[in-house]
Specification:
Layout: E1 2-4, H1 23-37, E2 42-47, H2 54-65, E3 70-76, H3 86-92, H4 104-113, H5 124-138, E4 144-149, H6 156-168, E5 174-180, E6 192-194, H7 200-210, H8 217-227, H9 231-236, H10 243-248, H11 258-270, H12 275-286, H13 292-301, H14 306-314, E7 318-320, E8 324-326, H15 329-338, H16 341-354, H17 361-371, H18 377-392, H19 396-408, H20 413-429, H21 433-443, H22 450-468, H23 472-484, H24 489-504, H25 512-525, H26 535-548, H27 551-567, H28 572-576, H29 578-587, H30 591-608, H31 614-627, H32 631-648, H33 655-663, H34 667-684, H35 687-704, H36 707-715, H37 725-741, H38 744-758, H39 764-775, H40 780-796, H41 800-816, H42 820-837, H43 840-852, H44 870-880, H45 885-892, H46 896-910, H47 918-923
Parallel strand pairs: 2-5, 2-6, 3-4, 4-5
Antiparallel strand pairs: 1-3, 7-8
Helix pairs in contact: 1-2, 3-6, 4-5, 5-6, 11-15, 12-14, 12-15, 12-16, 13-16, 16-17, 17-18, 18-19, 19-20, 20-21, 20-22, 21-22, 22-23, 23-24, 23-25, 24-25, 24-26, 25-26, 26-27, 26-29, 27-29, 27-30, 29-30, 30-31, 31-32, 33-34, 33-35, 34-35, 35-36, 35-37, 35-43, 36-37, 37-38, 38-39, 39-40, 40-41, ...
Organism: Streptomyces nigra
Keywords: ATP-binding, Nucleotide-binding
Domain HTH luxR-type: 861-926
């Protein structure tokens, strides 16, 4: 995959020539190194076409920096892109002595990724964190410069880990430079620098240095025009010209792309070499790890003697020392592509023979495949074993490549089909769903078992839905689930859940008939007489009952499912679908169950490193913490969600941020966010987004006393309360708003619908919410008893945010009756509770009502301080929650050094000296005191 980089010989091309006109680029690279030496960190993507001078820039910068920083430099190679984590292993080889200082999950993840221990496939994000930790440890004593040349050839897993680390660098003393031809999507958004061709004068000077003697002016100008300022082209293209061409004005045709013409020029230069020397160069090109021992042993096997080495080295094409390196990556690709298929097979066969089956079985299998023309089961079986090892290391893309090549070399049509299906599944898991569908099409005509055919249907449905996200996805997944029912019931259940999730995804914007069809199919497949206690089966049936027969019919099964999720040790699939159980806890008005499920899912997702699940689990934790009155903790969870989304590109909308801003009474932040979420939901056909926007706006307006606006928001949800969840909870806000605006009929309608979704549940929380809502529409002793009952229940359930809101409503009612002294008692408690929770909108409303009752409140002025950056605020919030620096780093995917750096700045800006002062200091910030 990669080779250690060694600069070409000093007499090949004067070092200064390719650097003419590069002062700006050199200054930017040297500034990056200088920042690392000063204890700061950064990454830079250097892009430009092949031969434009990226490597020369890197040579110059590393040569200047070698006396001041530690340097780790590699060059990636196209021929081993399929070996998972091969690039990262080469880069980190000298750093692994520090692996035992990493947190245990990170140490295990990177050691499994590198094949140093056996365990479950590591999370790519834990590997990324481990890489960040290793880089930080390496920079502990001396600043570190990491350079990856030709990074476009990195294997997918290594590229992802490097991109992860690059985005988290901050204050570790690390400079990371990634050179590539075009900025790959995985590196998009990182600071970048484009290297372009030289200007005319610099190009002419470089051409003069590259071509000794006179050069016809017309030839010179045509070469400069064709090379477009590309330094490698200016050096290499003239070498393909004869003296007559140089003198007479004839040159190469410009019909080929520049890269192809450079390669063609290189091939022409090597063409006069004796056949043994060309074969030796091909051997070196096919073995990109740069191991001289493999080159010596392989050449001996091919019968290549010292004369072949002497002739090859005389061309200056490559250097053999402690490692084997070519003078430019294009030399390697030119040599390999120009060789005949038979010659390639010969060198791969030799390399397979001399590569250790014990220590490097995957590279050996890959070489054997390269040496094989006709189907060969032994070679295919070795590739299949390599795919299993790649899966274990977390390399789904590598597994797909091994299996696809194994299928090509499989003699048996039956085994070929099996391997094609397995390759397609690996491709889909790696995010290449289009490639998965292509492989499934190849398997269509091959003999498959009934189970394999069913798996093909399932995979085709999943890949198609991943690519299109259209309404046909639910039906295709349903068909797949039915096909698996008798063959693999466990996988069938999981597919049914995917079908139901796809069908219900749209909510009110989706297809109700399709939801019903999927739900009825699930009920038919999961008999009511089924005595299973499996959490996944129970939640599947419970959600189907909810969709078809309503809340009352679903309640017993949903309760069993919730207990099962809490009592059983969930398997991997159940952890993915635990959010269904959490949703059921919300529909069951069970705050304790929701709290336990959210905590458990977050804990499991963190422990397993399943970052695809973690944002959803954290969003539930946000809701739990807000309901519990811990808005600061909810904000910290939002920070963690944002950190994960930044790293992974997870599209989860910022529902938590919206609800948090609404409870805090921050209209300037909440209203634009609600509109953005509403528009996004309409564009994606996600009805849940509309409920989230309407509910949050209703909360915001009720808190600010804008009851007419709250009525408008709540009214939008009235037709959809059968969907439960947020639509159901909006009824509480609508009763309050309509009661304050005097719209009695609307309030009674909302109350009736609220009773329909709370009385059947019968939990203390549900009955408290109903009592509070009903109290607002009753008078006298009846209203008073309802308020007191609700307050008692809310206090018993430990839901302070509703204790405060209910006392506020009760105090307002007492004020209207002229019972000011009693009103002040309720309102004072409400104000204290709501202020402690950080529910500022409702707290201000309580303060206003207190003043109306005749009580004067002291005015607290909030101090405006120097603006905190978003990252500083994130770190400060987690520190306020009592997390250690290492824990904060793990949550926000940053190094401990970066945490320490930001905390020092936070303390200075807030004028504090201890962590214990953070809570008060952060509470004293004005809404404009941070950029969050």
């Amino acid at each position: 995959m990669v080779e250690r980089y060694f600069p070409a010989k000093a007499d090949m091309v004067p070092d200064i020539a390719p650097l003419r006109g590069r002062r700006g680029e050199l200054a930017e690279l040297e500034a990056l190194v200088s920042r690392a030496r000063a204890g700061r960190s950064g990454a830079l993507v250097v892009s430009g076409e092949a031969g434009v001078g990226k490597t020369a820039l890197l040579d110059h910068v590393t040569a200047r920096a070698v006396a001041h920083v530690r340097i780790e430099r590699i060059v990636a190679s196209q021929s081993e892109m399929e070996l998972a984590y091969a690039g990262l292993q080469q880069l980190c080889g000298h750093m692994m002595g520090s692996a035992d200082r990493l947190p245990a999950p990170q140490q295990e993840a990177i050691e499994v990724a590198f094949g140093l221990r056996s365990a479950a496939a590591p999370s790519p994000f834990l590997v990324g964190l481990a890489l960040l930790g290793l880089l930080t440890e390496a920079a502990e004593e001396q600043a570190l410069l990491c350079v990856v040349d030709d990074a476009q050839w990195l294997d997918q897993a290594s590229a992802r880990a490097l991109a992860f680390a690059a985005r988290r660098l901050d204050a570790e003393g690390i400079a990371l430079v990634l050179a590539m031809r075009q900025v790959a999507p995985v590196f998009a958004g990182l600071p970048d620098m484009v290297v372009e061709g030289l200007g005319y004068e610099d190009a002419r000077e470089l051409l003069r240095l590259a071509v000794p003697g006179g050069l016809d002016r017309r030839v010179r100008d045509q070469l400069i025009a064709e090379a477009r300022g590309n330094p490698l082209a200016l050096r290499e293209l003239p070498r393909a010209l004869s003296p007559a061409q140089i003198a007479g004005g004839f040159t190469l045709t410009g019909s080929l792309p520049l890269e192809s013409r450079i390669e063609q020029s290189l091939v022409l230069q090597l063409a006069p070499l004796p056949a043994p020397a060309r074969l030796l160069l091909l051997l070196a090109a096919a073995e990109p790890t740069g191991d001289p021992g493999l080159l010596w042993r392989g050449s001996a096997l091919l019968g290549l003697g010292p004369e072949a080495f002497d002739a090859a080295k005389a061309t200056d094409a490559f250097v053999v020392g402690t490692r084997v390196g070519f003078r430019h990556p294009l030399v390697r690709s030119a040599v390999y592509r120009a060789a005949s298929p038979d010659a390639r097979r010969r060198v791969h066969a030799a390399l397979a023979e001399v590569t250790s089956a014990e220590h490097d079985p995957d590279r050996r299998a890959w070489h054997r495949a390269g040496a094989t023309l006709e189907p060969d089961e032994e070679v295919a079986a070795d590739l299949e074993k390599s795919a299993v090892r790649a899966r274990t290391r977390g390399g789904a893309a590598a597994a797909g490549a091994f299996l696809e090549r194994a299928a090509e070399l499989t003699p048996s049509p039956f085994l070929r089909g099996q391997r094609l299906v397995a390759a397609a599944e690996a491709k889909h898991d790696a995010g290449a769903s289009d490639a998965a569908l292509r492989l499934l099409e190849s398997a269509r005509a091959l003999p498959l078992t009934a189970l394999q055919k069913a798996l093909v249907v399932r995979l085709r449905a999943r890949a198609g839905y991943a690519l299109r996200r259209d309404r046909s996805g639910a039906q295709h997944l349903l068909d797949a689930a039915r096909g698996l029912e008798r063959l693999d019931p466990v996988l069938a259940r999981d597919t049914y859940i995917e079908a139901l999730a796809a069908a219900t995804y749209g909510g009110r914007l989706g297809d109700a008939e399709q939801v019903a069809a999927v739900a009825h199919a699930i009920l038919g497949a999961t008999s009511a007489a089924d005595e299973t206690d499996r959490a996944r089966d129970l939640i599947l049936r419970g959600q189907a009952l909810l969709a078809t027969e309503g809340q009352t019919a679903a309640l017993p099964t949903l309760r069993r499912a919730q207990r099962a999720f809490l009592e059983q040790a969930p398997d991997f699939l159940e952890m993915h679908w635990m959010w269904f159980a959490s949703r059921a806890a919300q529909d069951l008005w069970d705050p304790a169950g929701l709290r336990a499920l959210a905590d458990r899912q977050v804990e499991l997702a963190r422990a397993e490193g399943v970052v695809t699940v973690l944002p959803i689990a954290l969003s539930l934790l946000v809701l739990v913490r807000m309901t519990s009155g811990d808005l600061d903790g909810a904000e910290a969870a939002c920070d963690e969600i944002d950190a994960i989304k930044e790293v992974t590109g997870n599209p989860l909308p910022p529902y938590g941020r919206l609800l948090l801003a609404s409870y805090r009474g921050q209209a300037d932040e909440a209203l634009p966010l609600a509109e953005r979420i509403r528009a996004d939901g309409l564009a994606r056909g996600e009805g849940y987004a509309l409920s989230a926007a309407n509910f949050s706006e209703a909360v915001l307006h009720n808190g600010l006393g804008r009851f007419a606006e709250a009525v408008a928001c709540g009214r939008r949800e009235l037709p959809y309360t059968h969907e439960l969840n947020l639509a159901m909870r909006t009824l509480v806000e609508l009763v309050e708003a309509a009661a304050h605006t005097g719209e009695r009929a609307l309030a009674e309608q909302a109350l009736e619908q609220l009773a329909g979704v709370t009385r059947p549940v019968g939990t203390s929380y549900a009955l408290a919410v109903l009592a509070m809502a009903e109290a607002q529409l009753r008078t006298g002793d009846e209203a008073e008893q309802l308020f007191l009952d609700a307050i008692k229940r809310f206090e018993h359930e430990r839901i302070p945010i509703w204790v405060g809101r209910c006392r506020l409503l009760y105090g307002e009612a007492l004020n209207r009756q002229g019972r000011s002294a009693e009103a002040r008692e309720q309102l004072r408690t409400a104000h204290n509770v709501l202020t402690a929770c950080g529910v500022n909108g409702f707290a201000r409303r309580a303060a206003d009502e207190l003043r109306a009752s005749g009580e004067t409140l002291p005015v607290h002025t909030r101090t405006s301080v120097t603006r905190l950056t978003e990252q500083e605020l994130n770190v400060a919030r987690l520190a306020r929650e009592g997390l250690t620096n290492r824990e904060i780093g793990a949550r926000l995917f940053i190094s401990v050094h970066t945490v320490e750096y930001h905390l020092r700045k936070v303390f200075v800006k807030l004028g504090i000296k201890r962590r214990t002062e953070l809570k008060a200091a952060l509470a004293g910030l004005t809404p404009t005191a941070s950029s969050a």
